[in-house]
Amino acid sequence: MNFSIGERFGLLELVPKQGSFVTWKLIEELKGNLSPDVEEIKSCGIKQLDSGQISWGNDTNKDIEIPEIILETIVAEIKKLDASGSLQSHHVSLYGKLVEVEGPSSEDSS
After folding, report:
1. Which of 26, 62, 30 has the alpha carbon at shortest distance from 46?
2. What is the 3-state secondary structure (H, E, C) of the chain?
3. How far apart are CA 14 and CA 43, in angstroms?
4. What angle do CA 24, 29, 31 make, to 5 degrees?
5. Distance between CA atoms of residues 58 and 7, nearest Å
6. What is the pTM of this model?
7. CB atoms within 10 A of CB 9
8. pLDDT tens for residues 62-87?
């Protein structure tokens, strides 16, 4: 799935903070894939402001595969944020990509 720089930073917030040894290896690999590399930092003008926020000039998309076991946790977290009214603007496009594409659950069909 393609993610913009902003979406990738948003995903980094949602990636599980703990897990088993196996999931931890997957989490570390995913975090590396989501993070911009040196070339992308230069070409997109990514920098950290004094306030701690991150800014960039040019945006690029990157195709990233999220392992199903990690994706389930991320989707659960973003749904939890939505249910509590805690979604922030940088979560909205992720919600559209990750939650709305799920479609109706099997529980809804009777």
Report:
1. 62
2. CEEEHHHHHHHHHHCCCCCCHHHHHHHHHHHHHHCCCHHHHHHHCCEECCCCCEECCCCCEEECCCCHHHHHHHHHHHHHHHHCCCCCHHHHHHHHHHCHHHCCCHHHCC
3. 26
4. 95
5. 14
6. 0.82
7. 18
8. 999 999 999 999 999 999 999 999 99
